[in-house]
Specification:
Elements (H helix, E strand, L loop, with lengths): L2 H19 L19 H8 L4 H13 L5 H14 L3 H5 L7 H6 L6 H15 L3 H9 L3 H10 L3 H15 L3 H10 L15 H16 L4
Helix pairs in contact: 1-2, 3-4, 4-7, 7-10, 9-10, 9-11, 10-12
Length: 217
């Protein structure tokens, strides 16, 4: 069952119980009415007949991939997607919706703005979210992000790639190890780093930022 419909059903049952326990709830103007507390946005959308966040995410990716839409409309779709995946539940829903691979594909787009937005979305999705960190690692995006951070011709793409890397490696050792392996020898740590040690992670990210800034246009 759709999560929104499930929440709506639960809310309906709870509030029906409240009315049953207090027969005056619907007739007494002074009686306390059942509140809508606990009815989340997904349930409200289900009640109103609007698209769920999952549907909006799929629609956004369809627009991003569409060969018929102009760049400005694709960027609007990317912006919508980035806002949707700010929530952990939506970010974690990217995998069952099949959005990680098409998002990774945009990292190699001919359009710098598309590469920038793809890196930005990745950084947002994985921030403080190990489930999404795992998906970014599995989909093979880290080598591309490292290359973008250090070599892309567009400064904004490099910045967002560094942001994505920074979000990906914090408190997640498998990703940190892969990033270290992908770095050129002069940036590669001489020993294994602790992904839970923010000082160590910050030192590495600062080194990547510095190397990236040397290519700033």
């Amino acid at each position: 069952m759709d999560p929104g419909m499930n929440q709506l059903l639960k809310w309906s049952i709870e509030n029906s119980d409240a009315t049953r326990n207090d027969p005056t709830a619907l007739t007494d103007p002074k009686a306390e009415r059942p509140s809508g507390q606990g009815l989340n946005a997904e349930a409200i959308k289900a009640l109103m007949g609007g698209p769920s966040d999952a549907e909006l995410m799929k629609q956004s990716m369809a627009a991003i991939e569409s060969p018929d839409l102009p760049l400005d409309q694709k960027l609007v779709a990317f912006d919508n997607l980035e806002q949707l995946i700010e929530t952990v539940d939506n970010a974690n829903n990217m995998q069952p919706l099949g959005l990680w691979t098409p998002l990774k594909d945009q990292l190699t787009s001919d359009q710098a703005d598309m590469r920038r937005m793809a890196a930005w979305c990745m950084g947002t999705a994985v921030q403080n979210n190990q489930q999404s960190q795992e998906r970014l690692l599995v989909v093979g995006a880290i080598p591309i992000l490292v290359k973008l951070a250090l070599q892309d011709s567009d400064s904004q793409v490099r910045r967002k790639a560094v942001y994505a890397i920074s979000s990906e490696v914090r408190n997640y050792s498998p990703a940190l190890n892969v990033v270290a392996q992908e770095l050129p020898e002069d940036l590669r740590p001489s020993r294994s780093l602790d992904a839970g040690d923010m000082e160590e992670v910050d030192t590495l990210i600062d080194a990547i930022k510095e190397a990236s800034s040397k290519n700033m246009s």
